Amino acid sequence: MSRDLVVALSGGIGGAKLALGLSHVLAPENLVIIANTGDDFEHLGLSISPDIDTLTYTLAGLDNTTLGWGRRDETWSFMETLATIGGPTWFRLGDRDLALHVERTRRLRAGETLSAITDDVARHWGIGPRILPMSNDPVRTRVRAETGWLDFQDYFVGQQCRPVIDAIAFHGAEAATPHPDALAALASPRLKAVVICPSNPFISVEPILAVPGMRDAIAHCGVPVIAVSPIIGGKAVKGPTAKMMAELGLEVSAAGVAARYGALLTHYMLDHADAGAVVPQRTSVAQTLMTTLEDKIALAKAVLAVIG
Amino acid sequence: MSRDLVVALSGGIGGAKLALGLSHVLAPENLVIIANTGDDFEHLGLSISPDIDTLTYTLAGLDNTTLGWGRRDETWSFMETLATIGGPTWFRLGDRDLALHVERTRRLRAGETLSAITDDVARHWGIGPRILPMSNDPVRTRVRAETGWLDFQDYFVGQQCRPVIDAIAFHGAEAATPHPDALAALASPRLKAVVICPSNPFISVEPILAVPGMRDAIAHCGVPVIAVSPIIGGKAVKGPTAKMMAELGLEVSAAGVAARYGALLTHYMLDHADAGAVVPQRTSVAQTLMTTLEDKIALAKAVLAVIG
Fold first, then answer.
1. Sheet of B282-286: strands edge to edge?
2. I need a labelling partner for B18 at 20 to 30 A (CA). Which of A35, A56, B115, B285 fits?
3. B99 to chain A: which residues are within 8 Å by CB?
4. What is the tally of structural domains in chain A?
């Protein structure tokens, strides 16, 4: 049996860019994306899965490239009206985006699993690769600020990452069952490599690793495990990665991320800007900033070239 | 104490037109509208109250005069997107309309009552008269067709009233508590008259009367009780009233509606087209078709003139 299966671990925006690149260079059956669900939350009575949705929109070509998040062709009548009746508007939900949340919530309440619903949406939108929630059980990322523990979206969106944090926890992770298809992919004789996308290590990748069995499955998969640095020249491309690293007492650099992953990785992909970084893994260098589709495809090819 | 309080019983579209007329000629504190909630249902996990919403939109000047139902300035991104993921689209929910349903559902789940939420929305939108659900307890209208009992919205929207029906039931009505403010208004020394708006008697008004205590409170209120005929020249202005009357074995006429209400009414308002109708109540004649705002105000004035 040929080793042709790539398993990617991804959070939202940054990870989805590389996942899209990978989807352009791998056959659909040769790519499984394990998505972080630690950002998931309940809002307005709706079950929202931001990273799964970002991956789904991106792979379906429905992502909003103007905003950099959410749905393309979005309209905002719902939020505008919600504001007029005093409803909570701190988390912006577009009218099209809302369809996904309302329908997912309806189906979850009817007893379907998050993964079954994710699969069905992907099928409707013609997405080839499998997007798999790390678990069908709820895992909720929380951060500890001076004022106490905060729900992730309160910190991330509500307070725009302003609070200084000193700890992160993944509530429910210990009791969560990893998605069996994720473990099966990681144990597959077809497995060629594991790619950790350039997502925030603390809030996008580590929740996945916190699900029992997931870290071990990767550590013992016996094939290359490569991470792409989310830090370029000491800065995060987007989001609070750099700020969080500093607050958690880590070196804000590509090397700092590599150190955090440690022995889990066999390989590490740096940007040209960080070519001199000293990291314990075998390193490669590429353009890791992904602006255009061509950038995403080029980085995906560079990653696949490293892992043979 | 002067008798200056008018209590109106109303369903959706037709009733809301007269309620709007009344709101233009009565001081806000002198009009209480008891709304039918028998049409309420749960759809997509949302609690939808069609008649309360029609009254609210109409009195706030937010009704969609082009469609004849729903919200003005409506957009349809949600429904369009829901269709692309295979969600149920038989009941059309606009993006703005959805804000009301999502927020109401959230607040109901948090333990608030339907009436408190209705009041708060009315306050946000500057509505003066009180719109009161007949009960905060769920009452669900069902109709019996050849194939068995149907939920009201399945019959009304899903099957567009095509099934022939031979019975109507108000599930939950017997156990429902009438809204105390509705009973208080009907027992108030300020009560001047009860106006039954030109709504469908079977599915808009009778659910209200089926709530324990409501019919008695009207029957014994000691002031004029006037209904405006929803039938003009043997036809319903809108909706299935005429079709239902025929199927239920009643005479399809303004007189047929008057007979149905019977001794509950002291007065009855007919359209000019039906001026010769013989009914047991004291009758008056006016233009009951309400197309413009002026029509609505004129009919409201005609009704108030009758009851002194």
1. B130-133, B31-35, B5-10, B191-196, B225-228, B267-271, B282-286
2. B115
3. 77-79, 81-82, 84-85, 87
4. 1
- Determine the residue among B62, B79, B80, B98 to mutate to test chain A binding: the one whose Cβ has the most chain A Cβ atoms within 10 Å: B98
The reported pTM is 0.94
In what side-by-side order are the strands of the sheet with A5-10?
A130-133, A31-35, A5-10, A191-196, A225-228, A267-271, A282-286
pLDDT in tens, B125-184: 999 999 999 999 999 999 999 999 999 999 999 999 999 999 999 999 999 999 999 999
Q: Which of A45, A84, A124 sits opposite B86 (nearest CB)?
A: A124
Longest dimension (CA), chain B: 60
Question: What is the four-CA torsion angle of A201, A202, A206, A210, rounded to 10 degrees?
Answer: 170
Count of pairs with CB atoms under 8 A, one residue in A, one in B: 107
C-alpha to C-alpha distance for B276 and A180, rounded to whole angstroms = 76
Phi first, then psi, for residue A235 (nearest 5°) are -130, 150
Residue B263's nearest CA partner among B284, B278, B282 is B282
Domain interval for residue B237: 5-306
Cα separation of A230 and A18, whole Å?
11
Which residue carries 């007029």 as its tokens? A84
Q: How close A142 comes to chain B (CA, Å)? A: 23
**Residue at B174: amino acid letter:** E
Distance CA B160, CA B162 (A): 5
- Which two tokens mark A250? 């880590």
Tokens for A121, please give them.
């949406």
Contact A78 B96 (CB under 8 A): yes
Contact status, residue A229 vs residue A268, Cβ threshold 8 Å: yes
